[in-house]
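Convert to structure. Protein one:
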Amino acid sequence: MKIKKVLLLGGTHGDEKLGIDLVKKIKQKPISFLDSIIVNYKATKKNKRYIETDINRTAGKKYPISFEEIRAGEIQKKFKKYNLIIDLHTSVTDGTFCGIVVDKIYKTQLEIIKYFGFNFVVIMPKEGALIAPSREKGIGFEISKDKIEKYSVDFLYNKLKNINNFKLNKKKKIKIFKYINSV
């Protein structure tokens, strides 16, 4: 499987350090086919989830007003030139480590989720996801703080660096969940 151009999104929420730290590492040690962005740089500087509105809940607004709504539009315009978009999140819920896709799961997404070692996929509705406009090539990773030892910056960096060298894993089974509603 050959992926020509990857975009890594870190800091979609400014208090989620794993993605921010991975973007910093990539800036120090670039990977030729990978670009990375701190999505919500204002919230990152203040170590807050967001400044005005949660960027995932406000992405795709027809008439953007808040900083996050405007920033989401800027980021989404960049998606066209990438074959894969990874939106990296840090969960506060212990034990969480899964891939997140929008509307349905595509074969390439499933194989990449397996490659990164996740056992679960959650299918989310298109409302409330920054990656929604590119749902066939966008994947969210949700990794809880208690799993960062396994899914460390170095681990994720090495997986990204070698993403074009992995073999399809037909034996690995993935549990797929569909988001219905918040409780």
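Protein two, convert as well:
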Amino acid sequence: MAGKIFKVALVLLVLGLLISILLPALGAARNTAAPDPYSEYLGTASQDRYFDPSVVGRWERPPGSFSAEKDQSARFAGRVEQRMSLSRAASDGGPMAEAMLAQASAPPQAAGLEAASEQNVGGGDPREIIYTATLNLAVENLASTLDYIRAYAKARGGHMEQQSSNMIRIRVPAATFDEVLEKLAGIGELRDKNIGAQDVTSQVRDIEIELKTATTSRDRLLALLEKAERTEDVIQIERELRRLNTQIDQVQGRLRYFKDQVSMSTITVVLNAKVPQEPTDPAMPFVWVDQLAFELLNPTRTPPSTPDLGDGVRIELPDGFVRHYQQDYITMALSSDGVGLKIIRHTNYDEADLDFWLGLVRTTLIDQMAIPVGEPVLDKLDGRWWGKSSTEIATLEGPKTVGAQPHRYLIGLVATDRYVYTVEAWGPDEALAKHRDAITQAMMTLRVR
């Protein structure tokens, strides 16, 4: 008897060990399961945005979805606040810009260039040195900072040489190089600083010798030209004078370039803004609204398909449409002449009414998708669904040019306490016009709950 009990206990122990090993593995396999084809098609890996609360209870949320929505809402509010702050800064130039522009009007200070003393070390000839610098700064406002740098360079006897949306290159007298560089490095958060010094004394001396030699030769030829009597001598001397004049012009140009680079230092300032510099649209906390008209606006994307169609959203498809993708919360179909149809069930948090979703969808289509949908058309769904005698549906429609061809977009919206249903249709203008009545009638057969 004791032996039997020992065997039973041993079997139970082995089963317990197997269960403890297999359960985590099954959980990991579930977590690493292949994403839904529709999520891959949209470029997203998560289906939380189309979460069906009927699976876990009406008022429950999928793991992480509520915190994700809170994060999205926080980002939404933060971006709005940033845009308001940016607008206020742009309207008055910012206090930093005003203070700095006031300082820019002050008279130049004494030269602070450390290298100036180096040019006369030992009492010999001054060194010819070209000084350059590059600053990388993080600032609050690009426009006002660029204005300040340009004004400051002018006040110090320099000028702006080049400017773009986030970069400015200025030339300032070499004697003020250190002073200007120190001032500009303090107008923002300094990220990087590079200073270059190129000694071109030998090049300048060589050019000066070449210029002197060519000038002396020209003077001698001019003297010979006055004494020449033969025509052949005059022609030969004039030819050589033309060559020397061209050479002298080129040498003088090189010398002017070096003298200019030595006398005027170059400072390049690259700016990086801490906040967006242009008004930006706040992030939409309801991701599915941002994905409306996705197929119309991305005609080259290959639609998803699945060999085993699931239950999908219950609707009577129009004649001539064939389903190519269907799962618990979505049904997609296509006609032979290129008209697409997509029905999705979205979670309606907080039981928002149809007017809220209709206003949000209409604004998004017009402002972000540039689809000029008209006023909504209201109608009632057919039949009794889940105890309701009728449910209201709103339809929006508008044109859109895609690939230089006229297209059209149609969407129907239904809102219940638990869900929001969208019925989207899109395609070439003539093709959609042919199916429009059938699609509208199919919308009336949508089963909602």
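The longest strand covers residues 129-139. The chain has 13 helices and twelve strands.
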